[in-house]
Design brief:
Rossmann fold; 5 strands; about 500 residues
Length: about 500
């Protein structure tokens, strides 16, 4: 009996539309296993990753890769995909363990070829290279970006570290001059025409998973219990359900029902609300939506109605995403150094201040704007882009903690974590990323506490983006009777809030 089979290894491309894997599987003609792998170090802070990051003490920070809100979104996305595949008599097989070891095991069972997306970061590069080195036939494709490598090269963009634009504006000018984004189209879903191959329906440790074949809409088993975390959310908090179906529904609703492309630029910096932002990011991060599909809908809106500054601004956000994705592929490990892309190799990270780190983790920094943002992030897995910038600025410049620890904290909690965007933005705000400014360690401090780099005045940010304290009152109801002046004074270190902790590091007055 011939046991030859192929595998589609899905990672953060959890969708049927605009996914080359399914057409490649059909062309092969062999039975297929559609697999999603959860590495142990995603869930266990004590488990080590086989890839060695620069200054790897960050791996011992006690953080994991997936918090409860993030796990909930991922699980919903997997369930949605499994339902869709089940209609084609295909199982989504979820396995826990080390990808390299698993593929070596499956190769002994008759595995012939693996279809998976290209690596986006050094860790994934390690996996793909190690799997190839043990003799597995690996076919990769790019389904994460708007443009292909060939298209970027045709636009005169060199994908080498020395020649890649060090600023977004340089990248954007090249793209807008030489590439026609109107021609970008997302491919429709492809139905699998090959047979399903069952990988013996067990995980790496041999523990049987539930029998899915008898269920119409089977559940996806989850490997750990997150019940110890507080999942309380304010009743007014907007909830994002995971999955391709929900992502496509959100895309349609935001553009056509909520009229988002007639107000996006105006509302995108708000801290709270139902539709101030597109909320596409989580669906893009897990691949429930493709960037091409989002752009296609933007262009359709502009064709049917009219292009405007709001539709153009959302396109710019897709270009920022594109820029960070290609920058991560080009610079790789450099993004995980303390000195980032800057040539300051003599800089060494300072020891972690345990008081500052504990206050951050507990959302008790004593600065209400920061604590509210942290509570939202920890309990919901999301906070606005403006809040993320404020959190990062306070973490880097006031708490003076290693910026990479902040990036890792975001990685644990964000339901829309994207390795390129997250690490690219943190490096950018630390002054060691794309379009670098002076490293905070070398900056001269001003009387107001500002460091050269990207520092934000928390009190100015609060006055501009939450003057009525809607966001603070939503996440810190104990401050519901306080006004802007009282909160600002307390944040500067003046004890005006009797029952609220003093700031571990006060913010500048203005």
């Amino acid at each position: 009996m011939n046991n030859d089979f192929n595998i589609i290894w899905l990672r953060n491309d959890l969708r049927l539309h605009d996914n080359p894997a399914f057409e490649l599987a059909n062309q092969s003609g062999l039975p297929i296993s559609v697999v999603f792998i959860v590495p142990e170090f995603w869930l266990d802070a004590d488990a080590s990753t086989p890839f060695s990051y620069p200054e790897s003490y960050l791996n011992t920070s006690g953080l994991v890769r997936i918090s409860k809100p993030k796990a909930r979104f991922l699980r919903a996305s997997l369930i949605d995909l499994q339902r869709q595949l089940y209609r084609q008599n295909i199982q989504l097989q979820m396995v826990y363990g080390d990808p390299v070891s698993l593929f070596a095991q499956w190769q002994q069972q008759g595995l012939q070829q693996v279809f998976t997306q290209q690596a986006q970061a050094p860790e994934e590069n390690y996996w793909l290279n190690a799997i190839r080195q043990q003799g597995t036939d690996l076919t990769t494709y790019n389904n994460q970006t708007l443009f292909s490598e060939a298209q970027l090269q045709d636009a005169g963009l060199s994908l080498t570290a020395g020649q890649w634009p060090d600023s977004f504006s340089g990248f954007r000018r090249r793209v807008e001059k030489h590439l026609n984004a109107d021609l970008i189209k997302a491919n429709p879903p492809v139905a699998l025409t090959v047979d399903d191959y069952d990988l013996q329906d067990h995980d790496l440790q041999g523990h049987a998973l539930q029998n899915r074949s008898s269920q119409r809409y089977p559940s996806v088993p989850w490997p750990t219990d997150f019940s110890g975390q507080n999942d309380h959310l304010p009743s007014s908090r907007f909830n994002l359900p995971g999955g391709e179906d929900n992502g496509l529904a959100r895309l349609s609703a935001y553009i056509w029902q909520y009229d988002g492309l007639n107000r996006y630029k105006t509302t995108r910096n708000q801290l709270t609300g139902q539709n101030f932002s597109s909320f596409f990011s989580a669906y893009l991060a897990w691949g429930c939506l493709s960037a091409k599909r989002v752009l296609q809908e933007i262009r359709y809106f502009e064709h049917e109605l009219q292009a405007n500054e709001h539709s153009q601004w959302l396109y710019f956000e897709l270009l920022w995403r594109e820029y960070f994705h290609w920058s991560m592929r080009i610079h790789g490990r450099e993004y995980f150094r303390y000195s980032g892309l800057a040539q300051h190799n003599h800089f060494q990270p300072a020891p972690i201040n345990p008081q500052h780190w504990q206050a951050w983790n507990n959302a008790t920094t004593g600065v209400p704007m920061i604590d509210a943002g942290l509570k939202e992030l920890i309990h919901s897995g999301y906070c606005s882009n403006r809040m993320r910038q404020n959190l990062a600025s306070y973490f880097i410049h006031e708490l003076q903690l290693d910026w990479r620890l902040g990036a890792q904290f975001f990685e644990q909690h964000l339901i829309d974590f994207d390795v390129a965007i997250n690490w690219g933005n943190w490096a950018y705000l630390a002054g060691v990323g794309n379009d670098p400014q002076h490293h905070p360690d070398s900056a001269q401090k001003t009387p107001g506490g500002q460091a050269q780099g990207r520092w934000f005045s928390m009190n100015k940010q609060l006055q501009q983006y939450d003057p009525q304290l809607h966001h603070i009152h939503q996440w810190l109801p104990e401050l519901s009777g306080q006004d802007l002046a009282q909160v600002q004074a307390h944040s500067c270190g003046q004890q005006t809030l009797a029952h609220y902790p003093a700031p571990v590091m006060p913010v500048a007055i203005s």
